[in-house]
Write a structure and sequence with these properties.
Shape: globular
Largest sheet: 2 strands, antiparallel
Number of strands: 2
Number of helices: 8
Radius of gyration: 22 Å
Structural class: mainly alpha
Distance between the termini: 47 Å
Strand content: under 5%
Strand order of the largest sheet: 1-2
Length: about 260
């Protein structure tokens, strides 16, 4: 499995580098890198499904649940990598003090932008999840969910079957908050709380993006977030409350991030 191979790679890398630098700990370096690349590929795989129009609106909920899960893994691997860089720099300083003639390697500063954008996409995924749960309770997805023939668990397992790997640990169906369960057990007024939570998430993302310097080119993403804030603000105030039409996910502005149109 990939987890066992990465662990073997860590042991080999540590043994090899210890010959020239016995004071450093190189464990987890390779497995952290492998995990980061693996999670990135899994995220791109799911996002590609929107480009290829493989998903229906009734699938968007578990797609964003899995994306939120994967962004959490990505965040942890980035933090792990940053910790290893910090530990390596601290060791270099210590060795440099012992050996004044030793030249310290010049390293680029840790790219906090990657971690920041990972947090942004994770929060946005949560915003979509809560909005879709609210729409499901309102009955806007009923035309896509024929309970006589639909099996959400089967759809979930088939959609994410390529992710049955050792690491990251697959999101189990038992830990997935299914739409059918949410619809069946939602107390009166639950959808309003979900819509407000969605609005709060998009508002938080907007505040983060507003602080990002313009050279990082997040204009299209920021535009979609602002539009979603406006749309969810209208929904919280009862916009199209009685409509049974499913929301439209519009990817015309930003390739991977949709604007939710409530009709």
């Amino acid at each position: 499995s990939s987890g066992i191979n990465a662990e073997y790679g860590d042991n080999m890398l540590h043994a090899y580098l210890s010959n020239s630098d016995s004071s450093a700990n190189h464990m987890r370096s390779y497995s952290c890198w492998v995990l980061f690349i693996t999670v990135e590929v899994m995220i791109k795989y799911l996002l590609l499904g929107w480009d290829l129009e493989l998903y229906g609106i009734h699938e968007a909920h578990y797609i964003y649940c899995y994306l939120e899960y994967l962004f959490s893994w990505l965040r942890q691997t980035i933090i792990c990598g940053q910790d290893q860089v910090v530990a390596g720099e601290a060791l270099e300083k210590k060795l440099a003090k012992r050996n004044k003639n030793m030249r310290r390697k010049k390293r680029e500063k840790t790219n906090h932008m990657v971690l920041q954008m990972t947090n942004v996409y994770q929060m946005m995924s949560h915003g979509y999840i809560k909005a879709l749960e609210g729409f499901a309770i309102q009955g806007k997805l009923d035309s896509y969910l024929d309970r006589r023939f639909d099996n959400e668990e089967l759809r979930f397992r088939q959609r994410f079957s390529p992710f049955n790997i050792a690491m990251p640990i697959p999101l189990e169906i038992s830990k997935y908050p299914s739409l059918s369960y949410i619809i069946a057990h939602a107390p009166p007024g639950q959808e309003q709380e979900l819509f407000q939570e969605s609005l709060d998430n998009f508002t938080s993302v907007k505040q983060v993006l507003d602080r990002i310097p313009p050279q990082h080119a997040v204009d299209s993403l920021a535009k979609v977030v602002k539009m979603n804030c406006v749309q969810m603000g209208l929904v919280v105030n009862g916009h199209c409350k009685d409509s049974k039409k499913a929301p439209i996910l519009d990817f015309s502005i930003c390739q991977n991030v949709p604007f939710m149109k409530v009709v």
